[in-house]
Q: What sequence folds into this?
């Protein structure tokens, strides 16, 4: 089935579902059975019947939990990936939603105004039948202003679906290391200052603490500081009750302070002097959110502190490559608590004279080669683009043996539908491929030629090694690597001033280019390199490289 046919089937299926829903809606109106309808007033409240015709306009509200894409529920991730229009808090942080479809339109909604104005914007976005997904921090019906927004959508005749998310009261206290389920069975109270309408919220909290219970209070840091002082004034006899306040819960900039309720007056600026001072990665801006825990539950945090005790928590790590190239490196750094900041150091451009590459691709299609060796995903991308220009696809590679250096290159081949025949099991470099490449055999190999598409600055290690084993090599420049533009001034200043805790180099070219466009890292910055070939010990600029910082195996530039 072609892509176009698959899209047609999708459209037809969606139309079929809409037809079934329309039929059910008409049947509901005809039967008028109270047991099948929720009681409602004329104001189209949340939970009331959807207005007629709403099946052609629908918004899916997705609770994103703590806000990180990898903490979405499976259902939420599937809906986000299928969205045609993704409505987020602000477009500046939209890139963090990597699970979104490539062609999805990103719309920021925070500037739209109140619930009614946001609902009108959502109605306009889904007017043409587009699949609109509204991403909400936390849980949909627990988020401030969201119940009113949902109700306003329904009042406008917009169909609404809701996918629950992990509620902040649960998520934030877990990130803070606070157990809400206690063996002593003391009372537990959860209060959200952002949504409460109680004119005296401190009263019930004070009563809970007086009974030996635990209170969890959500809000912005300033509001929590004032709230703590109010509760403390109500309880002069229990001023030593355990207290914990955590700012930016669940983010890589989370910071906590613990003590007693009597010291709450000193916490107005909690974390302001200890928060990381390096440049913030995109989508990593500190939030105006915090959680305050009062009572016995706040006393277990040292024993259960798992989030802020991760080995790289709060580290600013410079990664001299693009976010797309960073791949699992970016994911692993975040998993250990670091803040990766990607800085492109290399731009990939076509070769100055494309005739050599054109001739090689024609030879590939005509059966001139026994092997094709890809040393990078960029080389594969260049070959794939040329093959596509000829109106061909991966089947043009049939009959060829394929070698790949590195897991990223192998994964790119698999994404194209090709399983590589040879990937080095040890050193992921040109030398590693030479060590495992078979020698040419006149009997077993009908063709003695290897196509080697690569960068203009790549070393001759692979070509020379293959020649020594009896192969003829067509060493072709598939792309040029040129130095990228300098990063923004704040990043350059942070590099020179030592505000990055570490920098990770993945090739010798990234070392040269980063120093060229941004200067040498500060002497206090840990410099980690993938293998000895990348370590900047040769001629030219040198940087601080602790012996223990060389990690992994080498890879050619």
A:
């Amino acid at each position: 089935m072609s892509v176009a046919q698959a899209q047609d089937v999708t459209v037809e299926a969606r139309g079929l579902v809409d037809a079934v829903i329309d039929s059910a809606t008409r049947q509901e109106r005809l039967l008028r059975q109270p047991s099948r309808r929720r009681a409602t007033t004329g104001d189209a409240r949340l939970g009331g019947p959807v207005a007629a015709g709403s099946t052609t306009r629908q918004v899916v509200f997705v609770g994103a939990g703590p806000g990180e894409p990898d903490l979405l529920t499976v259902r939420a991730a599937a809906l986000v990936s299928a969205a045609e229009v993704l409505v987020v808090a602000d477009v500046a942080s939209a890139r963090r939603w990597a699970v979104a479809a490539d062609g999805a339109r990103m719309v920021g909604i925070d500037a739209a105004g109140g619930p009614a104005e946001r609902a009108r914007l959502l109605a306009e976005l889904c007017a043409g039948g587009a699949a609109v997904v509204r991403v909400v921090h936390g849980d949909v019906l627990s988020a401030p202003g969201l119940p009113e927004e949902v109700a306003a959508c329904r009042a406008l005749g917009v169909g609404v679906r809701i996918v629950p998310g992990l509620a902040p009261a649960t998520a934030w206290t877990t990130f803070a290391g606070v157990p809400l389920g206690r063996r002593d069975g003391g009372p537990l109270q959860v209060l959200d200052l952002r949504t409460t309408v109680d004119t005296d919220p401190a009263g019930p909290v004070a009563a809970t603490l007086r009974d030996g219970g635990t209170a969890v209070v959500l809000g912005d840091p300033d509001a929590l500081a004032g709230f703590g002082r109010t509760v403390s004034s109500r309880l002069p006899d229990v001023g030593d009750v355990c207290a914990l306040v955590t700012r930016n819960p669940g983010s890589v900039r989370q910071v906590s302070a613990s003590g007693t309720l009597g010291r709450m007056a000193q916490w107005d600026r909690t974390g302001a002097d200890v928060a990381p001072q390096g440049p913030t990665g995109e989508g990593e801006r500190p939030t105006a959110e915090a959680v305050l825990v009062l009572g016995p539950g706040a006393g277990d945090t040292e024993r259960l502190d798992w989030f802020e005790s991760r080995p790289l928590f709060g580290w600013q790590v410079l990664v001299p490559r693009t976010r797309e190239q960073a791949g699992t490196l970016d994911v692993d750094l975040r998993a250990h608590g670091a803040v990766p900041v990607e800085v492109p150091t290399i731009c990939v451009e076509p070769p100055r004279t494309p005739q050599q590459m054109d001739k090689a691709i024609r030879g590939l299609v005509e059966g001139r080669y026994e092997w094709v060796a890809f040393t990078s995903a960029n080389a594969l991308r260049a070959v794939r683009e040329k093959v596509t220009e000829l109106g061909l696809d991966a089947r043009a590679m049939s009959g060829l043996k394929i070698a790949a250096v590195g897991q990223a290159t192998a994964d790119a081949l698999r994404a194209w539908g090709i399983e590589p025949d040879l990937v080095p099991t040890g050193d992921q470099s040109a030398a590693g491929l030479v060590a495992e490449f078979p020698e040419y055999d006149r009997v077993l190999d009908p063709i003695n030629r290897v196509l080697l598409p690569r960068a203009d600055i790549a070393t001759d290690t692979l070509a020379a090694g293959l020649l020594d084993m009896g192969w003829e090599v067509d060493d072709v420049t598939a792309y040029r690597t040129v130095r990228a533009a300098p990063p923004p001034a704040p990043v350059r200043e942070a590099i020179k001033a030592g505000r990055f805790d570490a920098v990770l180099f993945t090739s010798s070219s990234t070392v040269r280019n980063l120093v060229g466009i941004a200067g040498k890292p500060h002497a206090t910055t840990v410099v980690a390199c993938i293998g000895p070939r990348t370590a900047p010990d040769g001629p030219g600029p040198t940087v601080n490289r602790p012996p223990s910082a060389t990690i992994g195996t080498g890879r050619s530039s």
